[in-house]
């Protein structure tokens, strides 16, 4: 996994990279490896608003569908349209080209509910 010191993790296996009040959201390497090959990604529309831990979309793998949970409250400002034609980018490069949405973060204090990389690694090793 690449160095993710600037990334926070949710207990529901999503990550968020924060730059100013913009967050880029995706699913973790662990989550995509557990799901297997991603064949479809259902993303929200620009302008949709979600609370922390609210379902904002889903990913479909060959044998299962999994909900995506928003790591921080915010409004969707962009979606990764490349995933509509190439959903396997989530498997191939989850922290780079496999991001899902960008949000305008509404409450940075919610960061206290997220995990650091070290905390997330401990969680998934159990």
TrEMBL record:
It comes from Zunongwangia pacifica. The glycine cleavage system is composed of four proteins: P, T, L and H. The modification N6-lipoyllysine is found at residue 63. The keyword Metal-binding does not apply. The glycine cleavage system catalyzes the degradation of glycine. The H protein shuttles the methylamine group of glycine from the P protein to the T protein. This is Glycine cleavage system H protein. Binds 1 lipoyl cofactor covalently. The keyword Phosphoprotein does not apply. CDD domains: GCS_H. Its cofactor is (R)-lipoate. Coiled coil: none annotated.
């Amino acid at each position: 996994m690449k160095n993710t010191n600037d990334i926070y993790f949710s207990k529901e296996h999503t990550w968020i990279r924060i730059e100013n009040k913009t967050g880029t959201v995706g699913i973790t390497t662990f989550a995509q490896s557990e799901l297997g090959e991603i064949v479809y990604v259902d993303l929200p529309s620009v302008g949709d608003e979600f609370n922390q831990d609210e379902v904002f979309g889903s990913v479909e793998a060959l044998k299962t569908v999994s909900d995506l949970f928003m790591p921080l409250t915010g409004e969707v400002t962009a979606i990764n349209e490349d995933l509509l034609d190439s959903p396997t980018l989530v498997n191939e490069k989850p922290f780079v080209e496999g991001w899902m949405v960008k949000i305008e973060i509404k409450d940075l204090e919610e960061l206290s509910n997220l995990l650091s990389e070290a905390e997330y690694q401990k969680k998934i090793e159990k």
